[in-house]
Amino acid sequence: MVYASLFCLFTFVFISNATPLLYDGRVPFNLTNDDLNSSIGPFLTGVKGSEDATHYTTLLGNLELPTPLWDAGTLPTEQVISVSIDNTSIFTPGSGGPQFGFRRTDLIAAVDGDSKDLDPLIESGTTVFHFSIKEDETRPLNFTHEYQIVFIEPNDGSHVFGIQLGSPFTNPTGKLPAENAYSFKVLDHALNVLFSTPFTPNSWHNFAIQVDWDQRTLAVLYSQDGSTLKQVTGIVPNLSAVAGVNGQGDFHIAVLKLPLVNPLDSPSNQGDVVHFGIQEGTDEALLYSGVFVEDTTDGISLGNDLLGSVNLDTAHARTKRSRQCHETFHQYREVGSTETYVSQ
């Protein structure tokens, strides 16, 4: 649950000019399947299983309306993108062997296949990461598992912030599904839960995560459907994150499903969630829209053509330790194109 009572501190200063847009991942209607398969456009599509990218990532065109937060009362200017996994969603990085423990499909923010030049642009000063998430009713998640769905991953494999769904991985496996399995959990670098809210069906869940890269702080804004974004935390220290260029990393929009512990595996393999564990191999998906990154020079985009200047007071925000931070610590380590997993 959330421990923050900050709405009285949220001050709007409505201004007419647009805040600087650093990256736009709102999928245009002219993006094609060939573009996705070639990583042309706003996403790198290489973190997936053995099939083409379009086996796992689907452009929905006019079949699904995106979040109304950015196109209220007008025709949509973006299309929804579906990110899915199935039993073929086994990623093979540059070394370390296939990740048999995971089922994953990741879209990485990029400009025509280039994420490394984009990362310093969107990860300096104070920037805000926007994204909206909706349930795919035809391909539901299995909430007995942990899902890591939105995160920034530096080369040390940690996450500057992360959005989690499902039951946090534990070894040994605890009660399933976990009490908070059906809720979004916004995590800081140290895996504290900054904000939690139910993953209700038939709604777009809109998030904005403000990252101050110099002071190493986070703040969270949230709304549903066409409602204007509201502050739900104060400015929260994120001091375990690495400062400077070593703390920068790729911005992922994903469905990354962790396994359950297999009691038949050896004790050492039970802790290696990348390569071992139980997966059902079911077809599962999430819908994404409203993905972009902005600078805060002129405020934060709140939706419905409104910008706001936000007073975020740390004195009124409290956090709760994430369960998996007590019981297990997951860390990815990525060196170039090589991605391995360390369990501590």
Total helices: the number is 5
- Intertermini distance: 26 Å
> What structural class should be given to the helix and strand makeup?
mainly beta
Summarize the amount of helix as a percent range: under 10%
- Unreliable stretches covering 5 or more consecutive residues: 1-17, 314-344
Q: Quote the CATH topology.
A: Jelly Rolls
- By CATH, the architecture is named Sandwich
Mind describing the biggest β-sheet? 9 strands, antiparallel
Number of domains: 1
Top-tier CATH class: Mainly Beta
What's the order of the H and E elements? EEHEHEEEHEEEEEEEEEEHEEEEEHEE
State mean pLDDT (0 to 100 scale).
87
Radius of gyration in whole Å, from Cα? 19 Å
**What characteristic shape results from the CA principal axes?**
globular
Report the sheet-strand fraction.
35-45%
Beta-strand segment tally: 23
Signal peptide: 1-18
Domain Glycoside hydrolase 131 catalytic N-terminal: 21-299
Keywords: Signal
Protein name: Glycoside hydrolase 131 catalytic N-terminal domain-containing protein
Short description:
The protein has 344 residues and is mainly β.
Structure write-up:
With 344 residues, the protein is mostly beta strands. It has a single domain (3-343), classed as Jelly Rolls. The chain has five helices and 23 strands. The protein has helices at residues 33-37, 53-56, 118-122, 267-270, 323-327; strands at 3-4, 21-24, 43-47, 57-59, 81-85, 103-109, 126-135, 146-154, 161-166, 183-188, 192-198, 205-212, 217-224, 230-231, 236-237, 249-257, 284-295, 300-303, 306-308, 317-318, 320-321, 330-335, 338-343. The strands form five sheets. Strands 2, 4, 5, 7, 12, 13, 14, 15 and 17 form a nine-stranded antiparallel β-sheet that branches. An eight-stranded antiparallel β-sheet has the order 3-6-16-8-9-10-11-21. 49% of the residues are buried. The model is unreliable at 1-17 and 314-344 (pLDDT under 50).
